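Weekly modeling sync, notes
Attendees: S.R. (lead), two postdocs, one rotation student

Agenda item 3: backlog of single-chain predictions. S.R. asked that every request posted to the team notebook include the full sequence so nobody has to chase files. The rotation student volunteered to paste the first one in as an example of the format we agreed on. Action items at the bottom.

Example entry:
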Amino acid sequence: MNSRKLQLVVLALVGCVTGYSQEKNQRENDSVAGKYDLQEIEVRATRVSGKMPIAHTDVSQEELKKKNFGQDIPYLLQNTPSVVITSDAGNGVGYTDIRLRGVDASRINVTTNGVPMNDAESHKMYWVDAPDLASAIGSVQIQRGAGSSTNGAGAFGGSINMNTASLSSRFEGEASFSYGMFNTNKQSLNLNSGLLDKHWVVNGRFSHIYSDGYIDRASTDLNSFLAQAAYYNGATVIKYLTFGGKERTYNAWDGMTKEQMDKGRRHNSCGEIQDAEGKVVGYYDDQIDNYLQWNNQLMFYHKFANRWSLSLVGHYTYGDGFYEQYKNNAKLAYYMLPVTEDLKRSNLVRRKAMNNDFYGFVGSANYLSSRFSLALGVAGNRYVGDHWGRVQELAKENSFDFPHEYYRNKTDKKDANAFAKATYELFRNFCLYGDIQYRYIRHEIWGSSSSYDYTNEQMQAIDVDKTYDFVNPKAGVNYTFAKYNKVYFSFAVAQREPTRDDFTNASLDENGNRKYPKSEKMFDYEFGYQFDNKTWNVGVNLYYMDYDNQLVLTGQENMDTYDALYENVKDSYRRGVELSLGVNPLSWLSLGGNVTLSQNRIEDYTEYVYNDDTYAMDPEYLGTTTISYSPDVIAGLLVNFHFKGFEAAINSRYVSDQYITNAERDDMKLDSYMVSSLQLGYTLKVDNARNIRFGLMVNNLFNEKYCSHAYGYSGIYGGQRVDEVFYFPQATTNVLANVTYTF
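Predicted structure, as returned to the notebook:
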């Protein structure tokens, strides 16, 4: 269904239900509605409270709604401390990414209602696979550092803990429409039944988001849905939630060189079709990433009379998808295709596909009194996935049968954990915090990989069976004094297993055995001070994240497949200070800001550079270097004016220089940038139950030409070192408009 037809359908539905909603609300008995606290369901053990000594930021549903014009969640969180974001398409729709304290997305734990959202193999959260998740979220808590014990992959830089929105006891709905530059548009409709027969609530949402993208052909077409039904009976809540979506995104993964940017910042080399002389003669229409993800959660919550509560969530996620790529002048042997004297190379189309199931349960028992709180958590999850690759077609005439499968492998990963955490008020406003987690992982992979083994002239064989047992203790103190002041200190241990690529790309040792990397460990020390009253909010947080065997890129390659290898470096660290300030000097004016100043270092670092003249890796000892993608300064500023339904906010974000490799080379870095945005909003009250909000967002207000991400590699050719860097330019000034009707 195209966006124009969808808009007409949504408008018709809104017109039908508005009249009914007024009549229904009039009939609703306020005393009955008030009797039922239709609170959001969550595994409460994964959240932290103000009494816990953990650096965190809470983002409310109201804040998310004001910004949710169609961009992904990383863009809605970009003004929180220590956050850096980027987008392949350049405008925040499609493939987006987030870093926290310089730490990449594979080390940031993401959960929804306590259920892990990170991909079990890569450890990354692919936001494009959960379209318009922001419309379903009631609140977000970002924990920086190791944080408290949670479910899923270890938090090595932080965690993003999301809960779906609570259900209202009243019949209500919301229709939202956005449109802006690059043909970016969003339509969504959300309907809530209100309390039925004093016990039931049913809710549903459908969204469609489309954008051409700032980068050429970097289009994104997203459809998403959510449906939920809840049963409330006194202190018991049972809720079924299903949500998911289908994404179709044109590849914009390759970036561009400075020379290409000089010719045009929107260039996209993905999908190029070249003739025999290497001249670009067109673009492949189906250079597309397609993925369907369907999440299901069955939740049970019960509050006992003796201060205990119980949360249980059973979950199942289904994933299925593929991406196609046009490959120019490809060697047929690399795809296990027959080679003849007359046919050794050809342009071809390859498809990499996957199908997976992720299921399990998470649960907690929680005790709360005036001086003591206890959370006991347990989780067990299993991921089963198939990966395969096929050549779909060959440009040159041949007698082969297509599609031709050239690799296939299977994954079975089991992940279980149990934790206990408690706070105890030893004396007035002085709280002790303790937390210990046990985590078990078994990761099995077998079959053949997508990498060609040049030594053995076949697809690389995979046979992985690795088991890990981690014990992660955490402890701290929190003291509130003089009413508005708080100090805290915490120490935490976090451990993390290698990713799928770390296993499948591993090279052989002299005995023919795979040299798998070791697991990583981090010792996290945090010390903070906060002052918070009605007018002022001041925060200072000092952190020292000390790594043992951190996995980083050193330039080393698997010499059989030429895949890049992450290697353990014995000693590395991140240390810094996070400063935040908020002030409300007038009833109609709010000011805020945050600054992160940090040092991020690897000690005793050796860089490896591939030498094409000798077919070997040349090492160079560099000593202490800066960790890649780790700016020394991240700063944000907010000015918010609000008066009688009108709101105007200016946000500015500064990110200092970033090296894109760990070798700390000045010719391989991202320049600093400062980007500002303006957001205008006006809420028009129709009556007590209905309002219309008009919004306008001007991104990159001052037309900064900047790149927020890049990657690179080095090699020696003819005795000369060559450093290649590929950048991802972000959109210049662009505008999004939104109207949201709540009824």
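Discussion: group reviewed the output briefly. The chain has one domain: 3-742.
Action items: rotation student to repeat for the remaining queue; S.R. to check formatting next week.
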